[in-house]
Design brief:
The complex is a heterodimer of chains A (196) and B (252). Chain A has 196 residues and is mainly alpha-helical. Chain A is built from 9 helices and no strands. Chain B is α+β, with helices and mostly antiparallel strands. Chain B folds into 2 domains: 4-52, no CATH class; 63-251, Phosphorylase Kinase, domain 1. Chain B has a 7-stranded antiparallel sheet, with helices on both faces. The chains are: A mainly alpha (196), B alpha+beta (252).
Chain lengths: 196, 252
């Protein structure tokens, strides 16, 4: 399964880098898209795992969104922007950290029991633990979790942002959560797997 | 004992994405399935810890202004912005272009002040209004002039004079980068009885002027002046006498 790195903007990207954006486009963009700058940055930060790189990529994606703004015909501006940001992130990853993208959805081969609530007992340094666990997941798992749990996106939005069919968002999330649970479960997980 | 629903429908249920019928079916299933019950519990606790841990990372303070500066270069009418104002060598040329463009801008009906500025009234008001939107007011929030002033170092090609006038009733709130007429400018933010005053500062080669008479549009007032190589424009919804008072304090 190859990575989808070609920016596709739900068919509305007509491919012309437009140089005719005027003050009205600008005002509309400021009103509809710019307010989602935090969302853009947050998604980039979790995909790239670096604040500095995310700042560059989010900025670039924002300007790209503006260039193609005439192709945005209303609707969910956040999802539209995040789609562009995501594509920009994958392009960046492919160029700078191609190895990271080679991980595929492979854990079906090794089903794991979900961790018990006790194993997931939440401690004080939670944020750090969760950050580390999230960052160990392959980008494809990380993005659905970030979109769902941090950005609060619906399945429909996740489908349009990540270009996975809506029917598979649920199972993608299920697998991502399972991975995260596993990443959060300390060593005794080994023992559990013996039962299989 | 591997329940298929644990790895599928349970998540739709958790996310509130099942339709009413399927949700009811799953609830019925939950009563008899220990695996799903346990799993739902751990997924819920994972979700709440993800929610509580402050993992969401907002854009850094300066990113918004950087994006805006980029947008400026892409927005027509481009006469002003096509000249990259941040390139050191073209600063002088930019001022000439900006001045001539704004000359036309100021000839338009509705210009109600005699001062010629390198930005239009609409830009000043827009910048002021934009700054009042949540999270836009300051890139550096501090009442300490010795914090605000150095913050601009390296972000602009000039250092704006920054003073707190809290004792006179104009407390410094902070500063931010903004863009006026295609140029990066410093915006100093003061508050006056809960009203916000933006003072935009940028370098100029024009000679000093007195504080010009007030302008008024859309309920906002502004005062403009030049002093010691800097161009100032203070804008707010406070009364003109308040605005003039602050202008005089800065002018001294």
């Amino acid at each position: 399964m190859g990575m989808q790195v070609v920016p596709s903007m739900s068919g509305s990207d007509q491919g012309k880098g437009s140089d005719v954006l005027d003050v009205q486009d600008r005002a509309r963009f400021e009103q509809l898209v710019l307010p989602h700058l935090d969302a853009a940055f947050n998604l980039a930060r979790w995909l790239l795992r670096s604040r500095a790189d995310s700042e560059d990529v989010a900025q670039e994606a924002m300007l790209r969104a503006f260039r193609f703004f005439r192709g945005f015909h209303g609707g969910d501006a956040r999802a539209w922007l995040l789609q562009i940001v995501r594509n920009a992130c994958y392009t960046w990853l492919e160029k700078n950290r191609p190895v990271e993208l080679m991980t595929e959805f492979d854990e079906e081969l090794h089903p794991q029991p979900s961790a018990s609530p006790e194993a997931l007992a939440i401690e004080g340094n939670n944020r750090e633990r969760l950050t580390r666990a999230l960052e160990t997941l392959p980008p494809r798992f990380r993005e659905v979790l970030v979109l769902r749990e941090l950005e609060g996106c619906s399945y429909k939005e996740i489908a349009s942002i990540t270009a996975i069919p809506i029917g598979t968002v649920m199972s993608a999330l299920a697998r991502a959560r399972q991975r995260l649970q596993r990443a959060l479960t300390p060593a005794p997980a080994q023992e559990a797997s013996r039962e299989l | 004992m591997n329940c298929d629903l644990t790895r599928t429908v349970l998540h739709g249920y958790l996310d509130g994405e099942l339709d009413a019928t399927r949700a009811a079916e799953f609830e019925l299933h939950l009563e008899g399935c220990r695996e799903c019950t346990t799993s739902l519990g751990s997924e819920e606790s994972l979700r709440s810890s993800l929610g509580r841990s402050g993992l969401y990372e907002n854009a850094p303070a300066g990113l918004r202004s950087k994006v805006r500066a980029g947008l400026n270069t892409m927005t027509a009418p481009p006469a002003v912005v096509r000249i990259p104002a941040w390139q050191w060598l073209s600063v002088a040329a930019t001022i000439v272009v900006v001045a001539s463009v704004s000359w036309f801008a100021w000839l338009r009906p509705g210009s109600d002040s005699s001062a010629t500025t390198p930005f239009t009234v609409a830009e000043i008001i827009d910048a002021h209004v934009r700054s009042l939107q949540p999270g836009h007011l300051t890139d550096v929030a501090s009442t300490d002039q010795h914090t605000v002033k150095p913050w601009f170092n390296g972000k602009l090609a000039f250092v704006p004079p920054v003073k707190d006038f809290a004792d006179e009733g104009f407390a410094l709130v902070g500063g931010r980068l903004d863009v006026l007429g295609g140029q990066n400018v410093a915006a100093l933010v003061y508050s006056r009885r809960k009203h916000i005053i933006n003072v935009f500062v940028l370098p100029t080669k024009e000679p000093d002027t007195p504080i010009h008479p007030p302008g008024l549009r859309q309920g906002y007032q502004w005062r403009h002046w030049r002093r010691q190589g800097m161009e100032y424009c203070a804008v707010s919804d406070v009364s003109d006498s308040d605005l003039y008072e602050l202008a005089q304090l800065i002018y001294q």
